[in-house]
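Suppose a colleague, Dr. K., hands you the sequence of a protein chain of 231 amino acids and asks what its three-dimensional shape might be. Before reaching for any lab equipment, you can write down a predicted structure in token form. Begin with the sequence itself:
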Amino acid sequence: MADRPFNQADLDVLTQWDTPTICNGLEVIAPERRAIGFTVEPMVCIDPKAKPIVGLARVGMVRAKEAARSKVTDRADWYDYVARVDFPTIAVLQDIDDQPGYGAYWGEVQSTIHKALGAIGCVTNGSFRDIDMWAPGFQMIGGRIGPSHAHVHMVTFGQPVNIFSMQVSHDDVIHADFHGAVVVPADAVRKLPAAIDLVSRREKVILDVCHSDGFTPAKLREALKRSGEIH
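The predicted structure, expressed as tokens, is then:
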């Protein structure tokens, strides 16, 4: 069991904020990550009303367009890898076909298996299906919905993956909701609440002026000066 600079309670705290708010906080804590570490393409969320998911990444790669040309990775080994140990896990699967999502790895069976293993969701550039038979409570933020699994097979796991420009490695902390996903550096987890509070207070100065009866562009200009750069 790894020695980490956060505990389960710290991860639970982060579920109260949506992923854009987490990104805002990270801009304060780690400004060098302002333009990296998050998904940059529109994604499909199976349950947009669910709370954000926060867990440790279990990374893998799949293909589906063509049948495997050599021995494939045993899915049972992947399941052992995904299974929760000390924290909930999030499956982060990169579809490496030239047309990602040609075949769906995810559906009724895989969502049910992964939920039983202690995973709380998946982030993938690939596709998913079986929407009406999906495992309740298992979140999915994917590239698209599709009808068939085609020749889907696991290529490898444990190696870094790229999900719509979000680089993810084993054990990275992932925060995800219907907006997309972001990698939270381990040493930023406990710093985020204070950073988010700072950003929220800066935003409130502007929002209060905009909502006031006596709003004027001059008052907005003054509020912007007092709030500092927030966007």
